[in-house]
Amino acid sequence: MRWDGQRLDADDGTTLPGMPSVRGLLRSVEVPEFPGQTFHEVLARSALNAVPADSAMPFRHTVNPYRGCSHACTYCLVGDTLVLMADGRQKPLADLRVGDRIVGTEKRDTYRHYVTTEVIAHWSTVKTAYLITLGDGTELVASGDHRFLSGRGWKHVTGAMCGPAQRPHLTTNDTLLGFGRSAEPVTVCPDYRRGYLTGMIRGDANLKVYRYARPGRRHGDQHRFRLALADVEGLDRTREYLADRRLPTGVKTVGVRGGLREHLRFVHEVDPAIRRKCGVEGIAVESDADLRVVSIEPLGLDLPMFDITTGTGDFIANGVISHNCYARGSHQWLEMDSGRDFDTQIVVKTNLVEVLRRELGRRSWKREHVALGTNTDPYQRAEGRYRLMPGVIGALADSGTPFSILTKGTLLRRDVPLLAAAARDVPVGLGVSMALWDEELHAALEPGVPSPRARLDLVRTLTDASLPCGVFLAPVLPGLTDGRAELDAAIGAIAAAGATGVTVVPLHLRPGAREWFTAWLGREHPKLLPRYRQLYGRGAYVPAEYRRWLADRVAPLLAAHGLDRQAGGEARGVDAGIPGDDEAAFPAGSLPERREDPAAGLPAAAPSAVRPMTEVPEQLSLM
After folding, report:
1. Domain 350-620: assigned CATH number
2. Among 90-94, 185-189, 473-477, the least confident range
3. How far apart are CA 550 and CA 484, in angstroms?
4. Mean pLDDT highest for which of 204-218, 231-245, 270-284?
5. How would you write 195-218 as a 3-class SS string?
């Protein structure tokens, strides 16, 4: 269900304090048993979400009873999108903080001008990504619901000309507004330091010996340095660069022409310490940059994305004007084990069961596998209050639809009798994720999430009820939880709990999460920072060498505890459960088994353990 494109309004047509105007909002409530959380109860228009056709996930549909956001433009851009700061620098969107001064725009009479504004809120989650390419080579990775300012007004990345998805959206006939592609940040090197000092010592970039006549003296004093500055950063940088004592000779001059685009390109390329003339305050929004939309391509991936709230309602992203999300300043996301744990603002689809039954009852529904918990945990704390899952389980079972549930919430234990009854009618898969066996690490990285032992008790409860349950030992943290003793203890405990299968997944460190985790690692385990830089220096995934090393360590442990030959592994001739982007599969029991459907002549579910896990559900990534 896509909430981003809808409006939520109160019944009387007014907007609730702190909430955007979205049709379907019943009320926003705060209750004593959930301190610090607000539940926004809404009416859903649909329940089944379609998974992108080119996704490697072994299911085509999902259901999410809860969502953590309800804005018109949510989680807009990837974390490395460069945002123009008030001092002329650019900073990755993921690195922004509340209170940062950035550049927005405002309309004055008939013209729009750049102005300074402030970041009021900042948060993130995961969204389906699209790549927008402009004529000057600018690239933007955004969600389909994000909006950019074009010559014909604000437009979403994706949309339709008619039907329910109708809305203004980008096409190759549009041109975006802004200054466009700029230069990469400067790399400080000896040549840069020499050139910088030349400009600092003499404003005319001329390094010579100067003689100044002084009254009462026979000859003038010689001066090479005249740093009468009030800019502390410039003085500090000069002092640092002078330490290498290698000053340049000769004369060089620089002239910048070409308007704002070339002005900012020069600023970003040389990164001057004196920023007084680097800002763009008051300059009109006009440019000769080629900002035609050349292409809009779905990447077929769900990526971590970030959004902010600003005082002007917009900001400058990779050189073009980008709409921001009108979220409350208090809207924050905790990105820990699954990339998103217990959210403070939770949208609850109160009529989900009714809508789901209607959709499952359509003649066109082919009873394909439906997955729950791959995006948000259906058994998070809100489920204790709203009890949506019993109705969801009943609707799926009654319609003959196979389903799977992935959770780290022990509240699932409440619905074991319902699941056991459903499993007699349709194939059911159950998965429990367990990232950290060490209790101290769990407390530091997974606050508010049931402990590993509590989740193993859940596994035991499920298997005692003759239900399948696969365990994702994910993610394994290099240098922290990949030791032989730690892995042996975790895999042994999983086997003792009766799990039908296990898959080991090393840490995926994606943008945004990377910054949070690196900061934590620097505080708690600074000696590991060099190793993580080596492992994740080229991207979010560990290199193949580490995966092979971890596989060699895990394989004998799986064999020792009887988990080396899970269902489907023998057919492929491989040891199931070992880590690897191409080899690792969903553990046996986590996906519904195939059953032939005599009535439809179709398989009721995809095979469970033979599908390689080339993509990782959001809940399995620490960040």
Report:
1. 3.80.30.30
2. 185-189
3. 10
4. 270-284
5. HHHHHHHCCCCECCCEEECCCCCC
